[in-house]
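seq as requested:
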Amino acid sequence: MKKLVVSIMVVVLCLAPSLLCAANKSAPGAPPVYVITNDDGTLHSYATFYVAGGMQGDPTLSYLENINTHGFGIGGGFFGTPRLAMLPSSSAQCLYVSNASSGDIAAMDISTLQLVGNFLGSTNDNGTSNGIGMVLNQNYLYAGYSLSNTIATFSVGAGCQLSFLGDITVTPLNGGWIAGMALNGNMLVVTYIDGSIESFNTANGIPISNNDKQNAAGFASAYFPDGVDITQDGHYAIFADAAVPTTVEVSDLSSGKLGPTIPYLVSEPTNVIGPGVNSATVRLSPDQSLLYIGNSQSGTVSAAFFDKNTGKISPGCASKQLKNFYNPWSYIGALATRDTGGTGTVLYAAEFGSSIGILNVTSTGTTCTLTESASSPVTDESSPGLLSIEVFPPRPF
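struct tokens:
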């Protein structure tokens, strides 16, 4: 299921202690938090920086700066494609932003908010159909090019430099394209938006298939995995399905390969996770107690309870339709939490059509609420259609 949307890049950072940074810390003595989105603009593409602030109840975002990526986007693509990448660590110093039209990856130094350079894969690599997704670890960055169905490997060097090492071609089972990507340890998990999924071993740099390519369980009902997340211990992969009902699927990775997926969807009374239309993006809370689900076509966000020990999902809660849905924005994109611990406290949602939704999260462990903040949404004036979003410091996995 192809989801075409216009995307843009935005990042948020404070260069040094300042009145602006101090005023926007979520608590006294806490470091500043920066919200990051990918603009994917067709005429120009920026990384736009917002400073996150305010206590729970009325969290805020304050515009800081635009950084030109010196590349161009396609203004659209799959919801689950991660167009921003950084190490899952508060010590991360490099931010990578993909430019699907110009086919390059822009590298930025977080400490200086400066563009370091633009890096290309091979002449075979082409992401102009639905974007270029990225994931990375300490040594390598992996880029998935949707049109060419290639995964390029770059070595990560000092000063955020990238060196292209090579690429592989993948062959989805049903003629689809690369969409979602997630990396944990040496396990790279990829969705192909046609119902098929696959994992790769990255121990030696260039990915090697684990020979576990398969159709997800939802394929029989035309529920196609788009986004994907992996638990902190690498035990489970959670797939977000492009499907009319809210549907996610869980695969056990403990064998070193993808196990058959177990679907959780609204139409099965034993596995109900909530209302909402489409569920193409997912994001685990930092403590992995909640699974946040972007209901792209109903303008809502759902949260399901997740058991990190068993991989089971149970019903949680759902937001009301977020403000200004279809006037002027449409579709929920990627999700990210403000805090790096607990439930994340505040959840940000990319709203296709140049805005960022802000939701407060509460949870007792058995019940939860998702309530839109009074300060939501925040306009992203540089974005013709926001799709990807991240937060720095990032979630620690």
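The chain is about 0% helix and 45% strand.
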